[in-house]
Amino acid sequence: MFDKWRKYSYAAQKSQWLFIRWIFIWIVVFFLLYTLITVFFFSMRVLENETMLPGFHRGDRLILSSFGFNRLILQKPWTDRSSPFRRGHVVLVDTALKEKQNIFIVFLDTLVRFFTAQQMSVTDPEEHFFIKRVIALPGDEISMTQFVLRVKPQDETYSYTEFELSDRPYDITIPQVPALWDVSLPFSGNMEPLVLGDDECFVLSDDRSNTNDSRTWGPISTTLITGRVLFRYWPLNRFGRP
């Protein structure tokens, strides 16, 4: 009897529609807030590979700062002094920004990631999202010997190893290569001196056997760096600032 009253009662149906409408409104509001926060302030990523060994492992869950707000204010590429990242920082590189993005695809991807808790995407994030370490900033002169970078900052006389210029210590994985390996190849571990442009930085994998970084891409525009790793929240045994 009660069910029939709810089915035929105008007041009950109106109340039910109001409830559904409010749920929909709250979902939309929450989605917009989520989008605003992830674009301009913070985002979360899962590391999908082992390119940042030994400090980072596949499956690490990371909280990153987003640089959308900084870029909105600056409205131009970052320089050494204006960039929100420094030498030694681990950052998120989005190579898809080299090309004009389809707004509909970007929105759809954000929607899918939101409703699947970052587990699904309409694009393949491994194709254009990369977690890398910033080694050199615009204007720096760099060279590589046995997989370790030396950096001479702009307007300075002396060069330093990459570790001396980082505000936090880190380790790298140095691969073994044959003694007669061609030193002209980017994965030989050696590189002739190179001066970065005003809008260029140099990013590397901590596992130097992986060359999906500036050794093969070349220096990248600062505009491709969209966030900085702030915190690792999973797994719990490596919980904290990386």
Helix- and strand-based class? alpha+beta
The poorly predicted ranges are: none
Tell me the number of structural domains: 1
CATH topology: Umud Fragment, subunit A
Q: Strand content of the residues, in percent?
A: 15-25%
List the helices and strands and how they pair.
Layout: H1 2-8, H2 10-40, E1 42-46, E2 61-66, H3 68-74, E3 90-94, H4 103-115, E4 129-136, E5 141-145, E6 148-152, E7 160-161, E8 191-195, E9 200-204, H5 214-217, E10 220-221, E11 225-234
Antiparallel strand pairs: 1-2, 2-11, 3-4, 3-11, 4-9, 5-6, 5-8, 6-7, 9-10
Short précis:
This protein is 26% helix and 24% strand. The chain contains five helices and eleven strands. Helix 1 packs across helix 2.
Tell me what the structure shows.
With 242 residues, the chain is α+β, with helices and mostly antiparallel strands. The chain has a single domain, classed as Umud Fragment, subunit A (Ribbon), CATH 2.10.109. The radius of gyration is 23 Å and the shape is elongated. It starts with a helix and ends in an 8-residue tail after the last strand.
